[in-house]
Amino acid sequence: MLTAILTGFLFSIFLVFTGKFFKGKLSILASLIPLGLFVYFFQFIPAIAGGEVIMRSYEWIPSFNVDLGFKLDGLSLLFSLMITGIGFLVFAYTSSYLKGHEYLDRFYGYLASFMGAMLGLVLSDNMITLFVFWELTSITSFFLIGFNNTNPASRKSALTALGITGIGGLFLLAGALLLNNMTGTYSISEMLSMSEAIRENEFYFLAVIFIFGAAFTKSAQFPFHFWLPGAMKAPTPVSTYLHSATMVKAGIYLLMRFTPVLGGENIWNTTLIVVGGITMVYSAIHTIFRTDLKGILAYSTISALGILVFLTGLGTQEAFLAAAVFIIVHAFYKATLFLVTGIIDHQTHTRDVTRLSGLNKIMLPVGIAGILAAISSAGIPPTIGFVGKELTYEASLHYESLVIFLMIAIVVTKILLLYAGFVAGIKPFTGKLPEELSNTKKPGFVLWAPPLLLAILGIVFGIAPFIIEAPLIKPVVEAMGADASNIHLALWHGFNTVFILSLITIGVGTALYFIIKPSKGLENGIARFDFIAPENILTKFNKIFMSISNFWTNFFQNGYLRNYISIIILFLVVLVGYIMIGSTRFTIDYNSLSKITVYEITTTLILIAGIFYTVFTDSRLAAVAAMGVVGLSICLIFVFYSAPDLAMTQFSIDTLTVILFVLVLYKLPKYLKLSDYKTRLRDGILSTIFGLIITTLALEVLSEPVSKEVGDFYAANSYIEAHGKNVVNVILVDFRGVDTLMEISVLSIAAVGVFGLMKLRLKMKDRRRYADTGQNTENNKN
Amino acid sequence: MRTTIILKTASNYLLPVLLVFSIFILLRGHYLPGGGFVGGLIASIAFILHSFANGLPKTKELLIMHPGFLLPMGLAIAFLSGFAPVALFDLPFMTGLWSHDPVAILGSVGSALFFDIGVYLVVNGVTLTIIFTISESA
Questions:
Q1: For A398-448, how does the pLDDT look when each residue is reduced to its tens digit (9 = 90+)?
Q2: With CB atoms 3.0 to 4.6 Å apart as the test, which of A121, A186, A323, A426 could cross-link to A127 if both were Cys?
Q3: Nearest-CA distance from A753 to chain B in Å?
Q4: What kind and span of H or E run contains A765?
Q5: Are the C-beta atoms of A403 and A500 separated by less than 8 Å?
Q6: What is the pLDDT of residue A561?
Q7: Which of the four pLDDT bands, split at 50, 70 and 90, describes residue A729?
Q8: DSSP state of A735
Q9: Min CA distance, B48 vs chain A (Å)?
Q10: Cβ–Cβ under 8 Å, residues A470 and A394
Q11: In sequence order, what are the residues at sequence separation of 6 or more whose Cβ sits closer than 8 angstroms to the Cβ of residue A645?
Q12: Do A750 and B138 touch (CB under 8 A)?
C-alpha cells in the first residue's frame, strides 16, 4: 500500500530526468500510472464489501508514537477509487488539452505528486501521517493552481489557496496533538474505541473546533470558501481534479472519518448543519450571478460541499447513505461539467456563457456528455443524481427537529443547483450557433471521451444503483459508524412526499432556467456587495496586518547593530529583572568563598582600568586594544580558577577578535564622535544595570544548593566509557558530540554567510564602477 | 600595511612552529587541556600572523586552496566519525569506537579523535574564511 501511495511521487521524480520524452506524443502514457493504481485498488472491492478492513503499518518514528499506518476501509476505498479513476481520465485528457505545452512534463509531475498526496491522505490511519499528506496536498495544489505562473492573478489565487488550506493544516496538527494528549495514540482506529472517553473529555470542544477548522478551510465552507473560485485560474484539468473528486473532498473525508470518533454530540451536529446549510444556500444563490462557466461551476461545487457537510451533520444512517451516494454523484457530474467546460474553452477560447450556444452542431459527443451531466446534477431520473437527491431529501425530512427549515434550505439549494447545472451543461449546446463560433474546430477523441464516459456511467449507476450499493456505498456507511445492513438503493422510491418535492424542484428549477438568463448585468449587480464579502474583509485585514508588521520590523530592525544589542539587553534586563525582584535573597555565604589573592586583585584592577580606558579613549585602535586587555584579564581569572581549557579558548578568541577589529577599523575613517552625551548616558545606565543583574544572578546561583549529579557522572565515566582524562574535551567530542556537530555546522553556515555577503558586495561594487565609468557593460555581461 | 623585517622573518619560522603546536594541542586534548577547537584557533592565528607579515596573497599561495574548502572536509570527517559505528557495527550514531591497544604517543585512538580533527578543520576554515574575506573586501 505504501508503494501505491509513493508511486505518484516516484513518477514525478522520474519525470525530472525523463521529462522531455513525456512532453510529446508519449504524454498520454502518463495516464497509465493512475490507471494501474485504479486497478490495484479495484481488486480490494470484494474484500472490503465483505466487511474486511485492511491495515498496513510501517515503523517510522516509534519513539513519538508515529508510524506510517494505513487503513483501507469503505471510506478510503471510495476516495481512492475516485482519486485514481478520475485521475486516469484527467491525466489522459491533459495530454490533449495541454498538447505541446512547454512545461507539460512539469504539470504531470505536480499532478502525480498531488495524486500521491491525496492517496496518502485518505489512506492514513495515523494522524501525523494524515497531517503530512494533508499539507502535501496543499503544497502540490499550490503548484497546480499557480501553473500559469506568468499570470499575476493566477499566482495570487495559488497563494490564497495555499494560505487558507495551510491555516487549516495547522488546525489539523493542533487537533492531532490534542487528541493524542487525550487518548495517548495517534491512530484513528484506536481512537474509535475511545470515542466515549473523548466526548466526555474537557477538551472535547477544542478538539472539535480544530477538526472543523481543518475541514472547513479545505472544503471551502463559508466563510473560507473564497479560495475555491479563485483557484479556477488553474488550467481546467486541475480544476476538474481538485474540485470534483480530490482536494476539496479532503475536508469532507476528514469529517466523515471523525464522525464515529467525535460525532453524535450536539455541538458537532448543529455546527455542521448550520455551516453546511449557510454554505450551500449562499453559494447556490451566487451561481445565478456568474457568467463565467468555471465561476458557475466553482460556486456550485462549494454548494455541493455544503450539502455534504450538512448531511454529515444530520448524523443519521439515512444521511450518511445520502452523503455516500452524493459524493459519487457529485464526482461524476462535476468532473464531466468541468471537462466539458475545458473543451469549450479549448476550442472556442471563451467561457462566457452569455456568448455560448448551439455548440452541439460542432461537438455532439461533448454536448451529450454535458446534457447528461446536467440532468444528473438536476436529479432527473434515471440518473444517479436522482437517487442522490431523493436520499438527501429523505434524510432531511426525517431529521428530529426544525425539519421545515432544513427542507426549505435543501430544496432551494437543489433548485438553484439544477439551474446552475443546466446553464453549464445545456445552455452552451442548445439554441442557435452564433456566427463568431461557427469556425470552431472539432475536439479530438482524447478530449471528449473522458467526460462522455463519466456521464454515461452516471446514467448506468442511476438505472442500476445496486452495482455500487454493496461494493461501495454500504462499506462507507459502516465506516462512518452506522448500521448498513438494511440499505437498498433503488431508482424508484414510490410516490411520497419526497417524490413530490423532487417534482417541485425539477419544475421550479427548469422554469428558472428559462426565466433567468445569465447576464453581465446580474454579475455587476452582485459586485456591489463585494465590500462585505469575506474575501475583501480578509484582504483589508491583510493590508492592516502588513502595515503593522512593517512598522514593527522597521522599529526593531533598523539596521544599526548598536540598537539590536541595546534591545536584546533591555529585553533581558526587563525579563530577568522582573523574575529576580522579590525572589532574590541577597545573601552571600562568605565561608564558602575562597580567599582573595593578590593576583586576583591586581588582575581585577587591570580589568577595570581597561574598561574605563575603552569607554573614554578618543582612538579606535586604543579602544580595541583596551578591549583585548579586558579579555585577557578574564582569561587570567579563568586560569586562577583552574579552567585551563576555557582560558586557552578565550585567549585565542580574544586575539582573533582584536585582529578582526583592526582589520575592519583600518578601513574606517578617522575617529569621529558618533554618539552624543545623552546616548552615552543611556547606554551607560543600561549596561550598568545589565552588569548588576548578571552579578546578582551569579551570586544567587552560588547560594542555591548545588546538584553535582551531572558533573559527577561525567567525571566518573569519562575515562571508563570514553577513554579520556580531560572531562571538558570528552564532553565536547563524545558525551555531547552531537551538539558539537551542530555547532560546527552553524559555524560553517556563518562563514559561508560572511563570504557570500562580502563577495556579493564586491561584485555590486564592480558593477557600479563599470556603470559609473561608462565602460561597455556588454562585456561585463558576457 | 608596513611591516618590520623582524616580524617578517619571525613569521616564517613561527608558522610551522605554531602549526605543530596547534596539532600538539589538538592531540593532547583527550588527556590534558586542549582539543580541536583551541587547536583550530591556534592554527588560524598562525596563518593570520603570516598574512600580516607577508601579505594575504602570499599566505593564500601557501595554503594552495581556499580555506573555505576546509569546512566541508571537516564536517565530513566529523560526521563520518559519528556515522562509522552505524555503518560498520550497527551501533547508535556517535557511539565511541576505540582501538584495543594504546598507540604510541597518542594513547588510545578512537572515533572521538577523528571527530576532534573534524572540529579542528572546521574551526580553522571558518576563522580563516571570515578573516580573509573581510580583510580582502574591507
A1: 888 788 888 888 888 888 888 888 888 888 888 888 877 777 788 888 888
A2: A186
A3: 9
A4: helix A737-773
A5: no
A6: 80
A7: confident
A8: I
A9: 9
A10: no
A11: A726, A728, A729, B33, B34, B35, B38
A12: no
CA A470, chain centre distance (Å): 35
Q: Which helix (H) or strand (E) holds A66?
A: strand A66-72
- Please indicate if any CB of chain B lies within 8 Å of the CB of A645: yes
Report how far residue A623's alpha carbon sits from residue A541's, in angstroms, rounded to the nearest whole number: 50
Task: State how far the Cα of B116 lies from the Cα of B126, in Å rounded to an integer.
Answer: 15
Residues 726-765 in A contacting B (C-alpha not used; CB under 8 Å):
726, 728-730, 732-734, 737-738, 740-741, 744-745, 747-748, 750-752, 754-755, 758-759, 761-762
Interchain contact, A726 vs B31, CB within 8 Å: yes
Q: Could you tell me the residue ranges of all domains in chain B?
A: 5-137
Judged by CB atoms closer than 8 Å, whether chains meet at B138 and A664 is answered as yes
Q: Hey, of B30, B42, B106, which one would you mutate to test binding to chain A, going by the most A CBs within 10 A of its CB?
A: B30
The pLDDT score that the predictor gives to residue B83 is 84
pLDDT band at A20 (very low <50, low <70, confident <90, very high): confident
CB contact under 8 A, A740 and B33: no
Question: CB-based contacts of A378: which residues, under 8 Å, 6+ apart?
Answer: A385, A417, A418, A421, A422, A506, A509, A510
The strand pairing partners of A352, in sequence order, are A292
Residue-level pLDDT at A775: 41
Domain ranges of chain A: 113-539, 560-724, 725-782
Is the pLDDT at A316 greater than 80? The verdict is yes
Work out the number of other CB atoms within 10 angstroms of the CB of residue A553.
10
Please tell me what DSSP assigns to residue A376: H
Write the pLDDT tens digit of every residue in A85-124: 999 999 888 888 888 788 888 888 899 999 999 999 999 9
Residue type, A509: G
ipTM of the complex: 0.89
pLDDT at A189 exceeding the cut of 70: yes
From the list A649, A667, A762, which residue is nearest B38 (CB)? A649
More reliable by pLDDT, B104 or A659? A659
* Torsion angle (degrees, nearest 10) of CA A688, A690, A695, A701: 170
The mean per-residue pLDDT over the stretch A485-514 comes to 81
Instruction: Read off the amino acid at residue A645.
Output: D
A262: part of which helix (H) or strand (E)? helix A249-262
Contact check, Cβ <8 Å, A726/B35: yes
**DSSP assignment string, A625-665:** HHHHHHHHHHHHHHHHTT-HHHHHHHHHHHHHHHHHHHHHH
Contact check, Cβ <8 Å, B82/A741 = yes
Structural fold of domain A560-724: Four Helix Bundle (Hemerythrin (Met), subunit A) (1.20.120)
**Best of A714, A718, A723 to disrupt the B interface by mutation (most B CBs within 10 Å)?**
A723
- The reply to whether A648 touches chain B by the CB within 8 Å rule is yes
Q: Which residues pair with A187 in a beta bridge?
A: A126
Q: Smallest CA–CA separation between A744 and chain B, in Å?
A: 7
- Among the residue ranges A298-312, A704-718, B14-28, the one predicted with the least confidence is A704-718
Read off the pLDDT band of A591 (50, 70, 90).
confident
| Average pLDDT value for chain A | 84
Greater model confidence, B86 or B22: B22
If one compares B63 and A170, the residue with the highest pLDDT of the two is A170
Q: Does A575 touch chain B (CB under 8 A)?
A: no
CA distance A723 to chain B (A): 7
Give the up-direction half-sphere exposure of residue A15: CA atoms within 13 A in the CB hemisphere. Answer: 24
Chain A residue with Cα closest to B109: A723
The answer to whether the CB atoms of B41 and A747 lie below 8 A apart is no
* Residue of chain A minimizing CA distance to B126: A751
Grid cell listed for A352: 462566457
A502 touches A389 (CB < 8 A): yes
